[in-house]
Amino acid sequence: MPRAELTLTVPEGVWIGDISRDHPEARFRILAALTDDDAGVGLAEVIATDLPPVITAIDADETVTELEILQTDDGKALVQFETTTPFLLLPVQGSGVPLELPFTLENGRAEWEITAPQHRLSALAEQLDTFGIPYTVNQVSQRVEPERLLTDSQLRLLLAAVDRGYYDTPRDCSLTELADERGMAKSTASETLHRAEEAVVKRFVEDANEDVLLEH
User: Can you give the pLDDT at residue 51?
Assistant: First the structure.
């Protein structure tokens, strides 16, 4: 399934973008967020060298209808807020793409990671354009779960080989020792590892080729 890394520029007039631009040293880490047709609620970690002015600015914004400071600690605050303009969540809601949390926002730019089918990513791009949110695609890769790439026996043996130092230089574990520990014949261990290595290397090369194509 495709995985995309995006950088979004929050338009002017959106409270969290404006405040982060007014306080470029501040970092917002959105830990949780939900929205409906009327409002949005979020949980965020706010980090800044001079924290009080940032919190004051959030509290003073007319679109932030509720702000509760849950915890503060040396330039860091955990806050829960409610806003009438959950602007960044609307494209996600409209496209049906699950937004991976947490995501960070600094100086008016949000960093998103999205894993979704291609048609959902296309729908998200359309929604971002509709709402006038500029964005840059930093990377697109194909996310493959290890259990789908390898069989159970291949995955278990490969993990054991890494753990025991079979791939260290110099090796801390021989193939014979690894096979004995796993209760396998040496020939079986060799064949299983070879097939696992083949699958992993080919996937790595495919992903690397995709990255090269994206750069050009």
Answer: 96
- Rounded to two decimals, the pTM is 0.66
Quick one: pLDDT at residue 213?
43
Query: Which pLDDT score, from 0 to 100, does residue 133 have?
Result: 96
How much is the pLDDT for 210? 52
- What is the SS3 string spanning the chain? CEEEEEEEECCCCCHHHHHHHHCCCCEEEEEEEEECCCCEEEEEEEECCCHHHHHHHHHHCCCEEEEEEEEECCCEEEEEEEECCCCCHHHHHHHCCCECCCEEEECCEEEEEEECCHHHHHHHHHHHHHCCCCEEEEEEEECCCHHHHCCHHHHHHHHHHHHHCCCCCCCCCCHHHHHHHHCCCHHHHHHHHHHHHHHHHHHHHHHHHHHHHHHC
